[in-house]
């Protein structure tokens, strides 16, 4: 444990004790924490992280892994109001199966996630349950192809 | 839809054929009918002399009722419509160049060889050749009538505005009231244009214009009353003549300022260009107007600009009075362009106001201030200052 | 006697002559005047499709000053506008709107395709959401290459458009 | 200009995409009288699929098309990409390159803020305030052009350093420009920021409270105008921002005027940073020359930097191929968009431009 990561390690340790090893620590670097959890625990973990002071979602996205037949849904939380946490970015990962791409929305925990989840919906086809506006945001209204950021969607002329 | 140039071409070809056929048809009829009606026809000699010698020409024109002293000439040419349109055209160019200079640009440069002097003419020819689009859902009759009414209103304003003691179209004992009575119609025209367009932005713009124009007519009229009290007359020419010693802007500074602000509002100029606020309402009540419709509406606004600036000059700046080395008309034009400049300048330095701020300013502040101005005028008269 | 071929020929010659006279003395000056007015009074539609709009804005700024050519920097309503400057990439969502805007403009109207994306898709040639060239939906008069074109290039394109208008029929 | 009959006394206005006050996006406004009761943003008119295209290009090839979304602030969006790619490719830029990157980033911030100021002027109906910043922006573009080679799209920052060194005499020209521009800032204040009419249009309009700003995920100058002293350059310094002394302008009011003032002060701040950087810079190499196609290590990296509009975030996943496996871009405009409908509801229609552009929402950036 280097000196730079004392705060980070403390944060992860607190979370781990709280959730009794239901979260996995992927790595802890200076200013970076990445944990992963199961979709069912996601909401509780997110709430705990929010209560630690990470009050904004800087990015929410997903990655398609066709070989494992799953999506990895990613949340990156930052803190703007507590000075000592401002340098830290908190990445929360969870995986959901590709044949049933549904996950509970975190809109009630982080309202800033609203448009991000809409974007993930249209780009990957992942439905966020209980999201009030689960509709297209950036793509044209008449889009009838598969969601473009999935790996099986290939660009014209680049197969 | 037929463009204006098709129309123009047709008219010109008809004229051409008429010219060609005139020796055969028109001249015999003319020469047979004229003696019967008892009008003397100018001889060829007279006619040719008139073409060469301007004085003879004017005499000849006077004989047939179209000379410079005739009412027709006054209304149509000088000091009536053509002159006003000319001043309006110059104002458009002047405005663009002046604003450009403030903004560290050059403004129109290439239309016309020198400094873009022909820019408004180019715009005019462009607008003449534009297709006229009437929206499908528009109220066609009112849609067409608004531009014509606008230009008509502009022209009617000129009826009683004198340019010098002897250059005027008509003189009336209450000639001050007539322009205000005519300006009272302008909200109606805006509303007609806005309603007939059948467009939401136009409609909001029209309603805003209605609020704005109504709110500003009252302080405008009251601010002028001070001048009336000082001069003791409603006749514009006698008002100017009573300023021979002191221009009314000095005893009536507050009134002049209020009148200036109301001019800005009446002309929908920055900071009161709320009905045409581009970033909210596209072009406001002008949104659906194309081609020459738009041109006529704009020309109407600029003729109104000229008329109101002239009114300011007459009421507050002593009209045509000035040191004797220049003729009265020249003094009037110098003062007129000074007024036009100060009306244009806010566009370079002011942002736009909001409609509620504008209405509060009009109904609360300007009306109160114009009444105060009225009392100032009364006190000045009773103390015998003027 | 009316059927006399020589007379017919004469009438035909005479009408040709008249047509020529009209063409030279009436139509030509009018054509010149109307075209002259048009080329110095090009009002652009305020339709920004992508990032080239920045360079369009810069071109109407003080250094390049499009108003020298009689162009207003940003005009309110498309009903009074003459040219549609397609300022960059046209996406699939924007394309129908742009066509609509073009159709709503009054005649005569011209289109300038500004930037590589508007010409052919440019950098976004393999994007799934980009129209590969605006000339598929609107007729383009002048193509201005560049990504984005410099304001000087835009001005050159406008001068080219003026030359085109100068020669065009009314 | 689509007519939607809603019934009742409500009016639905479609502002955009062809509207002088919208730019490249549309906002559907429901009006009750003069008040906005609902505002639904409809972005996506410039969605070009940059994230998907990034999966089909090498790390170097990605730079030009990733800077197109914000060509006003080209370095602002490519710098975090390059920083992320450097983490994956495991290269460290030399010291001088870091400093040049800071110069370019700050020049771009000035250019971007001046463009914003110009458009804000015209949005409030102040045409001179459009022209003056546009003219002064050209001076900074000249400075940036002398380094980057083109007016706006530099593609200047590359993994391992920067493309080329700054030209000789740059320092003198930059200082001269700054000296001139500091005088101009005072003139801007006189004609625009201290203008009572401008203040009456912006003071107290579109107030974004501190807790709402945090809650909604507002970022950048908009966040700092709501009283939160958060700037990535200070929070998590990249390049050599930790070696430079500068203050972040923070305003507490949270209204449109505060957002304007933050940006105006940042112009001054950026010039101070460039001055310090020019003093600290030492001659040296400017890039690590990397031969062949760069292949990243399998893994991922996420980086944020402070661009002109706020915190720019990149998340790149690599699987060891030539192309990145996934590039996630989170741009500040997209995150600020959420604030727009929040602020517009309850305000007057006439305040729409004053609020909209005070957020500095650049639709091309948000749509990617």
List the main descriptive attributes of the protein structure presented here.
heterotetramer, B: 18 helices, D: 368 residues, alpha+beta, Cytochrome-c3 Hydrogenase, chain B, three-stranded antiparallel β-sheet, 14 helices, globular
How would you sum up this structure, described in words?
- The complex is a heterotetramer of chains A (159), B (386), C (170) and D (368).
- Chain A has 159 residues and is of the alpha/beta class.
- Chain A is 23% helix and 30% strand.
- Chain A has one domain: Beta Polymerase, domain 2 (2-Layer Sandwich).
- Chain A contains 3 helices and 7 strands.
- In chain A, the strands form 2 sheets. A 5-stranded mixed beta sheet of chain A has the order 1-2-5-4-3, with helices on one face. A two-stranded parallel sheet of chain A has the order 6-7.
- The radius of gyration of chain A is 17 Å and the shape is globular.
- The model of chain A has no long low-confidence stretch (mean pLDDT 82).
- Chain B is mainly α and 386 residues long.
- Chain B has a domain at 133-383.
- Chain B has helices spanning 4-21, 26-37, 44-52, 54-63, 71-76, 81-102, 119-128, 140-157, 177-183, 186-197, 200-231, 236-241, 253-266, 278-281, 291-316, 328-344, 346-349, 355-383.
- The mean pLDDT of chain B is 81.
- Chain D has a single domain, classed as Cytochrome-c3 Hydrogenase, chain B (Orthogonal Bundle).
- In chain D, helix 3 (74-89) runs antiparallel to helix 4 (95-123), helix 5 packs antiparallel against helix 6 (170-193) and helix 6 packs antiparallel against helix 11.
- Chain D is globular, with a radius of gyration of 21 Å.
- Chain B binds chain C through residues 3, 5, 8-9, 12-13, 16, 96, 100, 103-111, 116, 118-119, 121-133, 276, 278, 282-284, 286-291, 294, and chain C through 22, 26-27, 30, 33-34, 36-41, 62, 65, 67-70, 74, 76-77, 79-80, 82, 104, 106-108, 170.
Question: What's this entry about, in short?
Answer:
The complex is a heterotetramer of chains A (159), B (386), C (170) and D (368). Chain B is mainly α and 386 residues long.
The CATH superfamily of chain A turns out to be NADH:ubiquinone oxidoreductase Nqo5 subunit
Q: Main beta sheet of chain C: strand number and arrangement? A: 3 strands, parallel
Rounded to the nearest angstrom, the radius of gyration of chain A is: 17 Å
DSSP strand tally of chain A? 7
CATH class of chain A: Alpha Beta
| Estimated helix fraction of chain A | 10-25%
Major β-sheet strand ordering of chain A? 1-2-5-4-3
CATH architecture of chain A: 2-Layer Sandwich
Order of helices and strands of chain A: HEEHEEEEHE
Say what oligomer this is.
heterotetramer
Biggest sheet of chain A, in brief? 5 strands, mixed
Which series of helices and strands of chain C comes N to C?
HHEHEHEH
- Poorly predicted segments of chain C: none
């Amino acid at each position: 444990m280097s000196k730079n990561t004392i705060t980070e390690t403390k944060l992860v340790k607190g979370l781990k004790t709280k959730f009794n090893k239901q979260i996995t620590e992927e790595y802890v670097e200076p200013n970076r924490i990445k944990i992963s959890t199961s979709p069912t625990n996601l909401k509780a973990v997110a709430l705990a992280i929010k209560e630690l002071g990470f009050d904004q979602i800087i990015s929410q996205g997903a990655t398609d892994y066709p070989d494992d037949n799953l999506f990895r849904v990613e949340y990156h939380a930052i803190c703007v109001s507590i000075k000592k946490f401002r340098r830290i970015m908190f990445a929360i990962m969870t995986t959901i199966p590709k044949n049933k791409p549904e996950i509970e929305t975190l809109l009630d925990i982080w309202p800033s996630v609203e448009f991000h989840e809409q974007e993930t919906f249209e780009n990957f086809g992942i439905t966020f349950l209980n999201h009030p506006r689960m509709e297209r945001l950036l793509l044209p209204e008449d889009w009838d192809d598969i969601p473009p950021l999935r790996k099986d969607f290939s660009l014209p002329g680049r197969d | 839809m037929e463009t204006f140039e098709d129309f123009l071409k047709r008219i010109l070809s008809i004229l051409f054929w008429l010219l060609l056929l005139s020796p055969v048809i028109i001249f015999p009829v003319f020469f047979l009918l004229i003696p019967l009606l008892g009008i003397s026809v100018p001889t060829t000699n007279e006619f040719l002399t008139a073409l060469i010698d301007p004085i003879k020409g004017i005499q000849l024109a006077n004989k047939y009722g179209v000379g410079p002293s005739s009412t027709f000439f006054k209304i149509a040419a000088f000091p009536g419509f053509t002159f006003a349109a000319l001043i309006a055209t110059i104002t458009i160019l002047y405005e663009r160049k002046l604003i450009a200079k403030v903004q560290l640009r050059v403004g129109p440069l290439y239309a016309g060889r020198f400094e873009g002097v022909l820019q408004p003419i180019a715009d005019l020819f462009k607008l003449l050749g534009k297709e006229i689009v009437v929206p499908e859902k528009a109220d066609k009759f009112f849609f067409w009538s608004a531009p014509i009414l606008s230009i008509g209103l502009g022209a009617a304003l000129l009826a009683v505005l004198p340019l010098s003691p002897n250059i005027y179209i008509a003189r009336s004992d209450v000639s001050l009231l007539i322009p205000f009575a005519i300006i009272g119609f302008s909200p109606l025209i805006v509303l007609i244009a806005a309603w007939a367009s059948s467009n939401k932005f136009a409609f909001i713009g029209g309603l805003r214009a209605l609020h704005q124009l109504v709110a500003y007519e009252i302080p405008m009229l009251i601010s002028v009353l001070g001048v009336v009290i000082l001069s003791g007359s409603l006749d514009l020419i006698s008002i100017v003549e009573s300023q021979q010693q002191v221009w009314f802007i000095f005893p009536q500074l507050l009134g002049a300022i209020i009148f200036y602000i109301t001019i800005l509002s009446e002309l929908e100029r920055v900071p009161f260009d709320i009905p045409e606020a581009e970033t909210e309402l596209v072009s406001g009540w002008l949104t659906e107007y194309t081609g020459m419709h738009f041109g006529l509406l704009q020309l109407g606004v600029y003729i109104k600009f000229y008329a109101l600036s002239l009114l300011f000059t007459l009421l507050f700046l002593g009209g045509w009075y000035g040191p004797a080395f220049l003729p009265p008309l020249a003094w009037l034009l110098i003062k007129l362009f000074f007024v036009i400049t100060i009306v244009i300048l806010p566009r370079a330095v002011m942002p736009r106001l909001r409609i509620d701020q504008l209405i509060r300013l009009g109904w609360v502040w300007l009306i109160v201030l114009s009444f105060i101005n009225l009392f100032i005028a009364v006190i000045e008269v009773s103390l015998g200052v003027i | 006697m009316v059927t006399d071929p020589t007379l017919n020929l004469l009438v035909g010659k005479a009408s040709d002559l008249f047509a020529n006279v009209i063409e030279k003395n009436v139509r030509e000056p009018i054509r010149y005047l109307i075209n002259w007015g048009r080329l110095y009074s090009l009002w652009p539609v305020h339709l920004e499709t992508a990032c080239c709009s920045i360079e369009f804005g810069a071109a109407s700024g003080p250094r390049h000053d499009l108003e020298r050519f009689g162009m207003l920097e940003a005009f309110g309503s498309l009903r009074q506008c003459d040219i549609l400057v397609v300022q960059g990439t046209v996406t699939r969502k924007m394309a129908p709107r742009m066509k609509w805007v073009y159709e709503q403009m009054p005649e005569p109207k011209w289109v300038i395709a500004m930037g590589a994306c508007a010409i052919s898709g440019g950098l976004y040639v393999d994007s799934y959401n980009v129209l590969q060239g605006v000339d598929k939906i609107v007729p383009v008069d002048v193509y201005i290459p560049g990504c984005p074109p410099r304001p000087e290039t835009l001005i050159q394109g406008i001068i080219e458009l003026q030359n085109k208008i100068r020669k065009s029929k009314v | 200009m689509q007519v939607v009959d809603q019934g009742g006394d409500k009016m639905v206005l479609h502002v955009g995409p062809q509207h002088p006050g919208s730019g490249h996006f549309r906002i559907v406004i429901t009006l009750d009288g003069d008040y906005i009761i609902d505002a639904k943003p409809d972005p996506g008119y410039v969605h070009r699929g940059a994230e998907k295209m990034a999966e089909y290009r090498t790390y170097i090839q990605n730079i030009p098309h990733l800077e197109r979304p914000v060509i006003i602030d080209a370095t602002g969006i490519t710098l975090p990409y390059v920083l992320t790619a450097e983490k994956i490719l495991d290269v460290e830029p030399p010291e001088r390159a870091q400093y040049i990157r800071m110069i370019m980033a700050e020049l771009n911030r000035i250019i971007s803020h001046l463009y914003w100021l110009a458009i804000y002027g015209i949005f409030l109906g102040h045409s001179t305030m459009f022209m003056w910043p546009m003219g002064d922006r050209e001076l900074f573009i000249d400075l940036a052009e002398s380094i980057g080679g083109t007016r706006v799209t530099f593609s200047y920052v590359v993994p391992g350093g920067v493309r080329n060194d700054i030209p000789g005499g740059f320092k003198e020209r930059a200082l001269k420009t700054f000296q001139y521009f500091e005088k101009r800032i005072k003139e801007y204040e006189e004609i625009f920021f201290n203008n009572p009419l401008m203040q009456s249009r912006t003071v107290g309009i579109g107030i974004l409270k501190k807790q709402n700003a945090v809650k909604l995920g507002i970022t950048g100058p908009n966040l700092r105008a709501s009283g939160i002293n958060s700037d990535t350059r200070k929070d998590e310094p990249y390049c050599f921002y930790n070696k430079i002394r500068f203050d972040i302008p923070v305003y507490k009011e949270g209204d449109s005027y505060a957002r304007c003032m933050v940006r105006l002060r940042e112009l001054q701040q950026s010039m101070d940073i460039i001055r310090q950087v020019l003093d600290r810079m030492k001659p040296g190499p400017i890039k690590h020359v990397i031969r062949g196609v760069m292949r990243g290590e399998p893994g991922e990296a996420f980086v944020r930097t402070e661009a002109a509009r706020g915190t720019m975030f990149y998340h790149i996943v690599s699987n060891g191929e030539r192309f990145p496996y996934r590039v996630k871009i989170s741009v500040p405009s997209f995150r600020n968009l959420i604030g727009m409908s929040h602020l517009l509801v309850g305000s007057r229609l006439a305040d729409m431009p004053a609020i909209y552009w005070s957020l500095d929402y650049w639709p091309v950036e948000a749509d990617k």
